[in-house]
C-alpha cells in the first residue's frame, strides 16, 4: 500500500506521510552499450545524473537528492573524483 506506482514507468512512487509522494528512479549505464568503455569520467558523471534527472522530470517530480550505484572492475581515486565532479 506504500507503493503508489511501481515497475513500468519512469519512476516508482512511494506514499509518504501527510499525503506526499516520493519518486524514485535507478538507471544502469553499461560500458560499451550506453557509453564507450574508455571515456571522460567527468562527461560520464554528467550523463549518469542527466538520465536520472530526466526520469524525475518526466514524472513532474522535484529532485531533492540523487543516489548512484557503480559496478566497476577497477578505477583509481582520480577517475572517481572526476566522475563525481561531472
TrEMBL record:
The keyword Thylakoid does not apply. Residues 8-86 form the PurM-like N-terminal domain. GO terms for molecular function: thiamine-phosphate kinase activity. Gene3D superfamilies: PurM-like, N-terminal domain. Keywords: Kinase, Thiamine biosynthesis, Transferase. It holds the Pfam family AIRS. InterPro entries: PurM-like_N, PurM-like_N_sf, ThiL-like. One of its GO terms (biological process) is thiamine biosynthetic process. The keyword Transferase applies. It comes from the Bacteria. Its EC number is 2.7.4.16. This is Thiamine monophosphate kinase.
